[in-house]
Amino acid sequence: MNQRIIEITNRIIERSKATRAQYLEDMQAAHADGVTRKDLHCGNLAHAFAGCSSHEKKELAENYTPNLGIITAYNDMLSAHKPYENYPEKLREYAIKHGAVAQVAGGVPAMCDGVTQGQTGMELSLFSRDVIALSAVVGLTHNMFDAGLYLGICDKIVPGLMMGALRFGHLPAVFVPGGPMPTGISNDEKARIRQEYAEGKIGRAELLKGESDSYHSPGTCTFYGTANSNQMLMEIMGMQLPGSSFVNPGTELRQLLNEEAVKVAAANPKKGFEFSLANQFNEKTIVNGIIGLLATGGSTNHTIHLIAIARAAGIIINWEDMSDLSDVVPLLTRMYPNGAADVNHFHASGGMAFVIRTLLENGILHEDVGTILGQGLTAYTKEPKIKNHELVWEEGPTASLNTSIIRPVSEPFSADGGIKILIGNIGRSVIKTAAVAPENRIVEAPAIVFDEQIDLINAFKRGELEKDFIAVLPFQGPKQNGMPELHQLTPTLTILQKRGFNVALVTDGRMSGASGKVPAAIHVVPEAKDGGAIAKIQTGDLIRLDAVAGTLTCLNSEMETRAPRTKNVRTQGFGRELFNNLRHQITSSEDGASFIL
User: Fold this and answer.
1) Claim to verify: residue 111 and residue 243 sit in the same structural domain
2) Residue 524 sits in which domain range?
3) How many angstroms separate the CA atoms of 134 and 364, rounded?
4) Higher local confidence (pLDDT), 164 or 200
5) Do residues 381 and 424 both lie within one domain?
6) How many distinct structural domains can be found in the chain?
7) Cα dihedral angle (183, 186, 191, 196), rounded to 10 degrees?
């Protein structure tokens, strides 16, 4: 095992000693109560299974048959979640077949960042993660369930489900993915269309056709953003079946994997606390998640989500842990926006089985962790196959099938994982360099301060940005406006970079899994709303972003003596006023941007 990874894991264990001990004590106490239906009065139980079949009522009344609580994020607006429409019916059938009962315990909201991108609703996107956690807990609080089946895929949804599941960590948990849509037009073609629209070379009709050809059917969007990073995390942390993350919806293999997930969930409650989520998910598990994120060039959103997930289990991690792990974890994949391939190409080239294998063989992943299948991550080097319409497990590939997409540790795309903490007189921030060319990782240029994304886009259209500059967007943090993604800036800044200008972005907002070729210092803390130095920067100040040395500095010494600007943000309309109190409770990005932890 890599010695540096052991050191970082041990310091997380030491840092978390008190909070982790309290968490485990709480979960063990809850588990000691046993199957909770025995504590329900007859009236309670009658209400709970009134809608069940006579067979299910009998099984539940006898208080022995495991009852699987389904927490679903289904809606048919999200392409990724459309396949979940008929899952409850099928999961109930599988449960009966494998000696259990399944009930939908509750539904949780499921926002699509692709729909709300650049819109008012995006200001509620981050908040939805904690609402999802609360909603999951409400569903499980009925005390009817022996294990959880979690149906969720997209951006804030899986982190929220994990946070809720961990607060019911005395129960086993199994995540059930839906799979990506088949490949549409190439990612290079999609990027070209977006850039041509940004430059005014094509109109909205051509843009809409290109987007529709990319996002064209039920299933997860195929680029490697937050949704697919979620699936990678759930697999490498042992929360779902090996090889199940990127199997397309509606296929025989997908159906067989869904049945196997129910079979595992039905068996695990009988195996004791060892198979509970609380015992399965520990400090080594979260380190494995960070390693997976780094090795695959995953979403920067997880620099906040992983912190929140860990804290729900009493584990304290921070950006230094991620940055230090990045120094020793190589980048093994190239998927859009870090390359031309999509997740279907990745899966066909060896996928998660090969990534996990090469990391384990080189001591860059903890093998001795709990999973839904038991102890040890070696099982996750296997792949699901179909033999005579039955699910079997075979050894996964021992070599990459396409080294332009996925490589072994001995031949990485980069020696480091591409996530680095930046520290300087502007504050602390995170940068993802996986797709940033080495020659673009240091930018020293005058600042241009913008209040909103549209201000930068309009300045570009007026021809005012044909020069070196660092765009500074303060007042985009979680306490100010919910930290919406600034994804609209990507095409414009990319165009300017291709024209030969040195450009970068500094913001207390976020860029999401679509962070690309332009260096972006994101999640700056303290944020502008808290009087952070980012609110003191003025247009013309010389800024140096150095992703090699790990620094973010305003070179104008006058900046530090200025009073920070303030900005009033309208938070009425679109239901935003209902979240105003939460803006005062939410923690900083470095603390997970949560109002419940």
Assistant:
1) yes
2) 419-570
3) 34
4) 164
5) no
6) 2
7) -120
